[in-house]
Amino acid sequence: MAKVLYITANPFDETRSYGMAVGKSFIDTYKASNPTDEVIHIDLYKEHIPHIDADVFQGWGKLQSGQGFEELSNEEKAKVSRLSELSDQFVDADKYIFVTPLWNLLFPPIMKTYLDSVAVVGKTFKHTEQGPVGLLTGKKALHIQASGGIYSHGPAAEKEMAHRYLKVLMRFFGVEEFEGLFVEGHDQMPDQKEEIKAAAMKRAEELAKVF
C-alpha cells in the first residue's frame, strides 16, 4: 500500500478551475485503480502553513543549541511543531501530485510556503562534501499545471518558472521520477477551451492508471 499526497493550491474547485478538474480526473481514476492506497488531500488554502519567520528561526536555534522544547515561546512552539508535522508527512509519503495554476509565471505563493516547510535538512536532503544529496529516493511526483496561455513549450516556455522550479526541487530532494501534465491555452484559444480541457482530462486518466 502506498501513501499518496494530493496537494492542491487553488482557491477554486473543479467546477471553476480547469486544473482542478483535471486533477480530480486524475485522483478519481487513481483511487479506482489503486483502492488500497492511502490518498491524503492537502488543500493548501485550507491548511495552516506557517511562514518561516523570526519565531521559527529562533525556535530552531534554541533546539539546536540544546534547549528543550518547553523553553520555546508559545509562538515558537506552535510554528515549529506545525512545520515538523508537515515535513514528516511529506517524507512519509511515497507519491506526490501537485495541482496548481500558473499565476504571473509561477504557482500561487501558498505553494512556495508549503515547499519551504518540507525543504528540511536531514529530512528531504542533506549536505555532504560533494554537495547536497536528496533523501527521498524511490518516490515519484506529478505536477498538473493549468495556464491560459501556452508555456510548456514554444516561445513562452522560457518565461515559465513554476513547473521548472518543482522539477528542480524534486530532484534536489532525490525524487527523480517527475512528470508534468499541462492544461493550457484555453484563454489563448477560447474557441478550443473545451477540447483542451477534455484532452487533458483524458491524459490525466491515462497517467493515473500507471502512476
Model description:
This protein has 211 residues and is an alpha/beta fold. The chain has helices at 18-33, 54-64, 74-92, 109-118, 162-173, 193-208, and strands spanning 3-8, 38-43, 95-101, 125-128, 131-134, 140-147, 177-184. The chain has one domain (3-49, 91-208): Rossmann fold, CATH 3.40.50.360. Helices cover 40% and strands 20% of the residues. The strands form two sheets. A five-stranded parallel sheet has the order 2-1-3-6-7, with helices on both faces. The chain has a two-stranded antiparallel sheet with strand order 4-5. The radius of gyration is 18 Å and the shape is globular. Also exhibits azoreductase activity. Catalyzes the reductive cleavage of the azo bond in aromatic azo compounds to the corresponding amines. Its cofactor is FMN. It comes from Aquibacillus koreensis.
Strand order of the largest sheet: 2-1-3-6-7
In total, the number of domains comes to: 1
In the CATH hierarchy, the architecture is: 3-Layer(aba) Sandwich
Structural class: alpha/beta
What is the molecular shape?
globular
Biggest sheet overview: 5 strands, parallel
Could you tell me the radius of gyration in angstroms?
18 Å
| CATH C-level name | Alpha Beta
Number of strands: 7
Low-confidence stretches: none
Amino-to-carboxy terminus distance: 13 Å
Q: Helical percent range?
A: 25-40%
> H/E order of the elements?
EHEHHEHEEEHEH
Residue-averaged pLDDT, rounded?
A: 97
CATH topology: Rossmann fold
Number of helices: 6
Could you tell me the strand content as a percent range?
Answer: 15-25%
Write out the CATH superfamily name: Flavodoxin domain
